[in-house]
Design a protein that fits this description.
The chain has 840 residues and is mainly α. The chain contains 30 helices and two strands. Strands 1-2 form a two-stranded antiparallel sheet.
């Protein structure tokens, strides 16, 4: 949509440049002298008042004569030396400023003049000086004269003045400026009046205003608004300027913003007054927008720009009236929207100061909102409350600024403009994240909102576990909306809009782990609807972006998705175990171990690790098979292996209502199943078609599984002793039981015998040595532990049993011979051994 170019603060930049050039040009000494003289005269008058020097009439007459002399001398220079026109106009402007000072002091400080007479003289001086400036087309003279007029009441102020007189004086100056706008396109004069009038009015309002002064203050505020609205309108429509230069952004947008801000301060003690003020201002701008649309048919395009600006302001103020009616303290959110409008106009006009002003308004609005959050009141209205709407407006403003600045502007002609354009382009991603986080804050405030219950007390709408899930859902849903702007189908890709998707999995993982730590399963507290929605949106976004960069991120995201599902299923099973009071039996740990083993089994399928299978040809395994079968399965395999060890060590085999049977009870079966699946995964991953690290082929991994299996087998005997012999399930009592120790000795001997016999038959010397080490440990245990049971029959039995078994091993499974080199064939030359290095 086309926008009306409003030249905002770029003109202020030009004014600063002009002031610098004016001050540091060829007449620097004279111009500095004028400034010093004016201020000196003002301070001299004030000093004379404070110290009762000379009669007041004489003092004022002297100041007035000095002003007339300056003006007359400037006129003489202008007439006799046309080449010194700038010098002459500067003197005349200074003389006019001194005359303003004289008349205002005579009225305000000494009451020598009645109000009507004083304002008549001020009007006469204003008309006179403006006429001279218009005759000579001398904007600097008019600017200096009006600057002195605005400075006069400040310089002679005693702090005890009448605000009605002050504002009436400023209103007279404003009307004069509006009249000049009818005749000349002197934007600097408009800005001077705007900043001086509203700046001084704001300072007075902060320091002096009291609610009983509303009746004498509000009419002036309305009059100031209308004067500078008209000045901006005349500047745009009277001088046939091109649309890009015709609209003054400061007056078009700044006037309603500042006036409305002051109005809110005036009516803060009146209920709903700010809302009605916003509604009235919105209606005014909508009416002016309608007028501008009709006018746009006959002008050169300025009316169209005006219409767009007026309609945008009207809709903004009408919309703002809703939250203001509910909570007036959030009125500053409008600054963010207006800042976005100023920025948009600045981009249309290619003016860097206007864009800087729009960004500054964003910062001001954000700080104001955050400052008021501590006093936010609860609300019974969903969404239509100031907390949510304020944050949502800030989010929308920051996001549209980020979207507009995603493409660099022309760099400009000056170093400052080029630097700002580069900085602005670099700021676009920051603005996106600011807007996105504001949006999350808006949803967070709504999720954590309090409402009035049946007992008329405030209560949170959602409990904390539900709030965590809704925060997660809000982030993912926002990322889903943002991704539409990251796609090329919308023209220029906006890659930063893809970034929130990167954090979907970490946020879901955090919420899942939090639920697991607090004992909440995935389906509790609204999880039965939130988690399916969140996972569905996550998979959709993953399908959209996992082919892009960075590729490593998406590979890890696919792996992390498996871990997330494991956590969710684990938390649900944990809850089910508690609900069924199965944590007091072996079923609690068994259920979790079996579930993890089933997940590992799913990731160990042959079709998943082999190439050219139907499973690997479909998404996501077509690109991320290793992310599932290798990276996702690795921690799961470690978890299953450690789970087998933990279950074996801690489960006492109580499987009520089922009876305990050795080897066929839930504990032993689940441990055996888990170790078997771990072994299967290790074999499959070693033969996988995709690359895996070399350390996965290390022989220590199978040995670790063998070690866990050995420990698990030992715990079988512990459960037998506990269930059938009544040995308490306590580590100390089990270790002190000679029955347990004797059983271990026999068990280890049987295991060693089995290993050594198998090694002898297969001629596997290393395996035989392993069995021998176990047998040696058994003998050592006999000497250190079993021997201490003096007089016990168990000691006799165990020593005899172990001795007999060792004899059997020695007979049936002697040490296999070393592997010898094959003898040479008959007739073959004898191989002469070569000396080794270092041997003679």
């Amino acid at each position: 949509m086309r926008g009306n170019p409003v030249q905002d603060l770029d003109q202020v930049g030009r004014m600063i440049d002009q002031a610098r050039n004016w001050l540091l040009g060829g007449n620097t000494i004279v111009r500095l002298g004028l400034l010093v003289l004016f201020v000196g005269l003002a301070f001299l008058a004030k000093y004379a008042v404070d110290n009762s020097m000379l009669p007041a009439e004489l003092r004022l007459a002297g100041v007035g004569i000095a002003g007339i002399a300056l003006f007359a001398f400037g006129a003489r220079v202008r007439s006799r030396k046309p080449d010194r026109l700038a010098y002459a106009l500067a003197l005349q402007g200074g003389g006019v400023a001194v005359l303003y000072l004289t008349v205002f002091a005579a009225f305000r400080l000494y009451q020598f003049l009645p109000a009507v007479g004083a304002f008549g003289l001020l009007a006469a001086i204003c008309i006179f000086s403006t006429t001279i400036a218009l005759m000579h087309n001398a904007m600097p003279m008019a600017f200096i004269g009006f600057a002195g007029a605005f400075a006069a009441p400040v310089l002679v102020s005693t702090g005890q003045g009448n605000h009605v007189a002050l504002f009436a004086y400023f209103l007279l100056l404003g009307l004069a400026i509006a009249a000049v706008s009818w005749l000349r396109a002197w934007r600097a004069l408009n800005l001077l009046g705007f900043f001086c009038t509203f700046g001084i009015a704001t300072v007075w309002g902060v320091l002096q205003y009291k609610s009983e002064q509303f009746g004498s203050t509000a009419p002036f505020l309305i009059a100031f608004f209308l004067v500078y609205f008209v000045a901006g309108l005349l500047y745009a429509t009277r001088h046939s300027l091109a649309p890009k230069q015709a609209l003054d952004a400061t007056l078009v947008f700044g006037t309603p913003i500042v006036a409305f801000g002051l109005q809110v301060g005036l009516v803060r003690s009146f209920e709903y007054a700010a809302a009605f003020s916003s509604l009235a201002l919105g209606a005014f701008y909508l009416a002016m927008g309608w007028w501008a649309i009709k006018r746009s048919r006959t002008d050169n395009g300025v009316g169209q720009w005006l219409a767009e600006c007026f309609l945008a302001l009207g809709l903004g103020f009408v919309t703002l009236a809703v939250p203001l009616a509910l909570e007036p303290q959030w009125t500053t959110a409008v600054w963010a929207a207006e800042g976005a409008a100023v920025y948009w106009i600045g981009r249309r006009q290619e003016r860097h100061l206007a864009r800087a002003a729009g960004l500054g308004l964003q910062l001001f609005a954000a700080l104001t909102y955050l400052n008021g959050m501590a006093t936010a009141a609860p609300s019974t209205f969903a969404l239509a409350n100031p907390a949510f709407l304020g944050a949502a407006i800030l989010a929308a403003s920051a996001l549209v600024l980020a979207y507009w600045s995603r493409e660099p502007m022309p760099s400009g002609t000056t170093p400052l403009q080029r630097s700002f354009s580069a900085w602005e382009f670099a700021l676009s991603p920051v603005l996106f994240w600011v807007g996105f986080l504001w949006l999350q804050l808006a949803w967070g405030l709504e999720i954590g909102r309090y409402y009035s219950n049946a007992q008329n007390s405030w209560q949170q709408l959602f409990d904390p576990p539900m709030q965590s899930k809704l925060h997660m859902l809000a982030w993912i849903a926002s990322a889903l909306v943002a991704h539409r702007f990251a796609c090329t189908v919308r023209g220029t890709p906006w890659s930063i809009a893809e970034r929130p998707t990167w954090f979907n999995l970490p946020i879901m993982m955090l919420v899942a782990v939090q639920g697991l730590a607090l004992g909440h399963h995935g389906l509790q507290h609204g999880g039965w609807i939130v988690w399916p929605l969140a996972l569905g949106m996550h998979l959709y976004l993953l399908r959209r972006f996992d082919g892009g960069t960075p590729a490593r991120l998406w590979s890890w995201t696919h792996s992390g998705g498996v871990w997330l599902v494991v956590i969710l299923i684990g938390s649900t099973l944990q809850w089910a175990v508690r609900q069924g009071e199965l944590h007091k039996t072996a079923w609690g740990s068994v259920i979790l171990l079996v579930a993890a083993s089933a997940g590992l089994l799913a990731l160990s399928q042959r079709r998943l690790v082999n190439q050219n299978t139907d499973l690997q040809s479909a998404w996501p395994l077509d690109r991320f098979a290793s992310a599932y079968a290798w990276r996702a399965a690795l921690p799961l395999a470690a978890l299953v292996a450690l789970g087998c060890l933990g279950v074996a060590l801690h489960s006492n085999g109580d499987a009520r209502p089922l009876p305990y049977l050795p080897f066929v009870n839930p504990t032993d079966l689940s441990v055996a199943l888990g170790l078997a699946i771990c072994s299967l995964w290790l074999l499959r991953i070693r033969a996988a078609s995709f690359a895996v690290p070399q350390w996965i082929h290390d022989n220590r991994l199978p040995l670790a599984l063998v070690g866990i299996a050995f420990v698990a087998l030992n715990t079988v005997w512990l459960r037998i002793a506990h269930q059938f012999a009544g040995v308490p399930w306590n580590a100390g009592r089990l270790f002190d039981s000679f029955l347990v120790q004797a059983g271990y000795s026999i068990l280890w001997t049987l295991l060693a015998m089995g290993l050594m016999i198998a090694a002898h038959r297969r001629q596997m010397r290393a395996l035989w040595m392993g069995g021998a080490v176990l047998l040696g440990a058994t003998v050592l245990k006999l000497l250190l532990i079993d021997l201490s049971n003096r007089g016990g029959s168990e000691r006799i039995v165990v020593f005899i049993a172990v001795g007999v078994l060792m004899l059997v091993v020695g007979y049936f499974a002697p040490l296999p011979p070393r592997t010898l080199a094959p003898e040479p064939a008959e007739g073959a030359p004898e191989q002469v051994p070569q000396p080794q290095k270092g041997q003679a």
